[in-house]
Amino acid sequence: MPSYSPMKPNRNSAAARATRRPRSDRAATPPSAVGRALRPFGYLLIAVVWTALGAITLLLPAALPFGLWSTNPDRSAQDLVAGGAVLPVLLFAVFALVVLVPLLGYAFVALPLASIPLAVLSWTYVVRSLSPRYAGERLSSTGWSRNVIGPPSIGATALSLLPVRLTPWTRFWTDLMLLGWRPSRALFVAGYPYGLATFAAAGWLYTPGPVGTAVWGVVVAALVVATVALLVRAFRQRVSGRPAPRAAAGS
Q1: What is residue 135's three-state secondary structure?
Q2: Chain segment 215-244, per-residue pLDDT in tens
Q3: Is residue 249 part of a domain?
Q4: C-beta of residue 199 within 8 angstroms of C-beta of residue 64
Q5: Which domain holds residue 226?
């Protein structure tokens, strides 16, 4: 005789959705005793990982000047001219201004903004997980958005380590993190002078004499200051247009 397996319930049915606990309720549910005991170690591991990633993203702009210096530390701009490499250098400069500077500048700005605030939030949760004041509540949550950087997916992209209890400290770092995760024209514009500063820093390697070094130093400093000013403006625009937060599952 044929055998029949029991019918599995449909998780997407109306009855299943009615009995499913909303994410906001899960975020408001106090953590278990085991969760309270283990979460300091979990947040510590996450904090170490994001701190390492943040340090790497901060050091990325130095890769180009260091790479040029390590290949030939004694080369100068006069050597390039004497070697007949003027045309290739000009062509590369045009390509860099049109393609490399915008892309690398955006990456050099967005990656630290996306990683360093998460490291700060993780260390904040480490401290809070050890405090009896936060023992009865969840510390972080996960939200979903379709307007952030992430792998291709049908649904929204998950954003973890969002604070459950918003304070001026956690709100600042959350807004700063979202500035890096959400692509915007303001961030793209802010990254362009930083990309220029990365290539201008390499000018120190090809400019002989203290005067040339001082000139390139002023140029790089001015570009960095311009980047900071544009980032501050982008952050203020982000805060002024902050959307209402979505409740999510806590941890």
Answers
A1: coil
A2: 888 888 999 999 999 999 999 988 886 654
A3: no
A4: yes
A5: 31-65+76-241
Q: Which tokens hold the place of 42?
A: 């979990």
Predicted TM-score of the model (pTM): 0.74
Q: Exposed/middle/buried for 145, CB within 10 Å: 0-12, 13-18, 19+? A: middle
Q: Is residue 184 part of a domain?
A: yes
Q: How many CB atoms lie within 10 A of CB 142?
A: 17
Distance between CA 184 and CA 192 in Å, rounded?
13
Q: For 143, phi and psi rounded to 5 degrees?
A: -115, 170
Predicted confidence (pLDDT) per residue in 14-40, tens digit: 444 444 445 455 566 778 888 888 999
Residue type, 13: S
What are residue 142's DSSP bridge partners?
249
For the chain, what is the total number of helices (H) and then of strands (E)?
10, 3
